[in-house]
Amino acid sequence: MKRVLVVLAAGLLTSGFVAAPARAANEAADKLVADVAAAQQVAAFWLGDDGANLRNATPYSVQTAVVGERVSATDVPADTKPGYIPPLVPSVSGSPNTKTPVTSGKVFFVGADGQPHWCTGTAMQSTYRNVVATAGHCVYDTQSSAITLDKWVFVPGYSAGTTPWGLYVGEQAFTHYDFRWYSDYDRDYAFVNVYNGVVSSPSGGLTDIGRLGDNVGGQGLAYNLTLDTSVDVFGYPAGPHPDGKQPYTGETIESSSGSTLAMRLTGLPADHPIGVDSRFTGEGSLGSSWLASYDGGSRRGHLNGITISVSDTDGDLRYDTSVSPYFDGQLAAVYAAAREDWTGSML
């Protein structure tokens, strides 16, 4: 999306329209908490009352569906040659009866409506083992004058109200400059640095359980790949289809698989979105990971897409396609900035 075409939408992601400063790099960074004391308060909000706010949170319903069609395309907006960053081997095996990755989980936050909500997120390989990937609008507040969503945390392996590998408070978010300032949904992705995980201690306080990557590993990254790449999608769909049927609960991780394809969207500022065959409904699945070359035995792959919306492309009142920005070298640069940011313990 050319910046000149979307400048009027900038107010969605800023606290009032102001001229964007000149910047050489493509990444934008924003603090999610002021300091460790504020981070402890965020953890207490979610873990207190035996996790009542986690259990009562509802799936985020912003931009869950979009009018879209599949289009024929032989070219994609690759800006460099294809690139791969290897995944980090998880130190836990998860359930022996499933091949879903333990890196997948829910991101929780308080929305512009003042209520607790959630999207899907995934742990990524990084230098300090502390990065979570999700949709940009599951971190940045597109509904009010606030810049970022409040009380942002990640719970890997979330299942039916449990936090099996702890809770990780977001410290800083990275996104593309054009999403942060111009609402360009070709750049609707975010990488969040989180503090070490915590659990409630017997005394009622918090106990540090270490770094995210040390506990669950981290997925790799693939960018500038050709279309028709096979990917496995992992997320927590929860909402209904247009026909009213609701096949998912949002309580456990779900998966689907397909090959990437070109899309054309109506009503959403994105020039080069891609899609994948998926029956996921939009609510809950925002932020779902698309993993290329995924191996069910090791539960590792390379992130090559993030669900930002879903679409019913054939008009049968059932969602059939998940939508993502195309992963190019500019996305890789935003990720590279996030993977070098240190956080540490908040206790």
List keywords for this structure.
mainly beta; Thrombin, subunit H; 10-stranded mixed β-sheet; disordered N terminus
CATH-assigned fold name: Thrombin, subunit H
Determine Rg (CA atoms, Å): 18 Å
Overall shape: it is globular
Q: Kindly name the structural category.
A: mainly beta
CATH architecture term: Beta Barrel
Strand count, sense and barrel status of the largest sheet are:
10 strands, mixed
- Number of domain modules: 1
CATH class: Mainly Beta
Give the CA-CA distance, first to last residue.
Answer: 42 Å
Sequence stretches where pLDDT stays below 50 over 5 or more residues: 1-24
The share of residues in extended strands comes to: 25-35%
Report the strand count: 20
Helix content: 10-25%
Succession of helices and strands: EHEEEEEEEEHEEEHEEEEEEEEH
In short, what is this structure?
This protein has 347 residues and is mainly beta.
